Amino acid sequence: MAEKQKVVVVGAGPVGSLAALYAAQRGDDVEIYELRDDLRDPSTTPLNFTRSINLALSERGINAMRHSGQPKLLDHVMAATIPMRGRMIHGKRPNGQIFEQAQDYDAHGRAILAVDRGGLNKRLLDILEGMPNVTFYFNHKLTGADFRKCKAWFEIQGKESSTGRAREIEIDFDLMIGADGAHSAVRYHMMKFTRMDYHQEYIDTLWCEFQIKRKEDAPENEPMARFRISPNHLHIWPGKEFMFIAIPSDDGSFTCTLFAPSEVFERLEINPDQIPSFFDHHFPGVTALIQPYELITSFHQNPHLPLISIKCKPYHYGSSAVVLGDAAHAMVPFYGQGMNAGLEDVRILFGILDKHSLIGGRDDDDEESRSAVVRSSQREAALAEYTAVRAPDAHAINDLALQNYVEMRSEVLSPMYRLRKFLEES
Ligand code: FAD
């Protein structure tokens, strides 16, 4: 039997959790280190969000879960999704009349799915918890890594030593998978070992979360009646320089997001009383769905967060480290592909590792060929192939995401756009 490898995953977000599942399915010893507390603990607030947000799940992400080797994962995740067959554009005609215009995503009726990010993440953690070769380390923050010696250091959050300093542990690993998000510590430490090209860009747009509540007086036996607007669309109020969107949740509410330049946020922070009139002017109909005082409260209470776009290359160092998901290619959310592309990273990475026969006990080869040294050089070749295959695609999705902001906030309203769409579909 080939010796088991120790795969350390940093970050238990959706991408890290799926990567851990793929590694565990292949029989390796998997340790997951996560900065925050267990997401399944109700007192844990999801990073950057006031509560769990809804995301658009599409074929990239679905396919990655389909190949996880856990059929129940996809069944469970899909059961809690809502199909969105297109955009619903909200606007006002020159005569003041408010209108809605549906624009289907696909001539054949295929849809993308609204999914609760936290729900998906929790399902992955539940499955991992039941696997004997997986160990969780919550409240562990990666603080250092030596990818030549395959050693890493983690600070245990909330635990201080007798000197008053945070307690630190040292671990070793065969492969570290960095899925620790846009501000990845794995990527930061990897840069000291490899000549990594790195580009980051903050766009001049902030985002803030709002909520359209469900109708409480809807009849029990009519679940669709709980939704105040169509549940099967991604709603967009394009405002040219900014936009407001709403994505359905299966409890009948909608998670909404305001995207606007920082200068607009500053103006509204100084004059919060103007928030309802700002919405009436730019996003007609929203104040009928969210009470003006709720708009002001949400704007005041919820964080105003930046949007970052990151490209880097290579994604790996030698045979010992690789970054996936936002850690490798954080992107602005306008193409709805950040998490989907991160989940796809996992499928592609493990496909390449499998091809090189590297992960897990698939060891019909003779014992010698799987010695530690050989395995390490095979893994190095596999990780190099992963970077070569994945970087151009990830960079392209990143660019498309930036371009799609212009389309969503402005072009969807233009006659040219409608003409182009019409010609594409006819
Ligand atoms: P994360 O979700 O950021 O998880 C990283 C994890 O690593 C976290 O749990 C963090 O606590 C942990 N961590 C961080 N540092 C350390 C450390 N030093 N040590 C240990 N652990 C650490 N994507 C879509 O596909 N569709 C959408 O519709 C969509 N909409 C979006 C809307 C908004 C407003 C935003 C902001 C993003 C959206 N995204 C969307 C993008 C999506 O949220 C991300 O791409 C996805 O969450 C990335 O997952 P991840 O697991 O790579 O990283």
The parts where pLDDT drops under 50 for at least 5 residues are: none
The computed structural class is alpha/beta
Order of strands across the biggest sheet?
A: 6-5-14-15-16-13-17
| Number of DSSP-assigned strands | 19
Distance between the terminal alpha carbons, to the nearest Å? 59 Å
User: Which descriptor suits the 3D outline?
Assistant: globular
Largest sheet: 7 strands, mixed
**What would the average pLDDT be, to the nearest integer?**
90
Can you describe what's shown?
- There is one protein chain.
- The chain is α/β, with parallel strands linked by helices and 426 residues long.
- Helices cover 34% and strands 27% of the residues.
- It contains 12 helices and 19 strands.
- It has helices at 14-25, 59-66, 71-79, 117-129, 185-190, 262-270, 275-282, 292-301, 326-329, 338-355, 372-409, 415-425, and strands at 6-10, 29-33, 54-57, 82-84, 86-92, 98-104, 112-116, 134-137, 140-146, 151-160, 166-172, 175-178, 197-212, 233-238, 243-248, 254-260, 305-313, 316-317, 321-323.
- Strand 10 and strand 11 (166-172) form a beta hairpin.
- The chain is globular, with a radius of gyration of 23 Å.
- Residues 10-16, 33-36, 47, 55-56, 141-142, 179-181, 185, 207, 257, 325-326, 333, 336-340, 342 line the site of flavin-adenine dinucleotide (FAD).
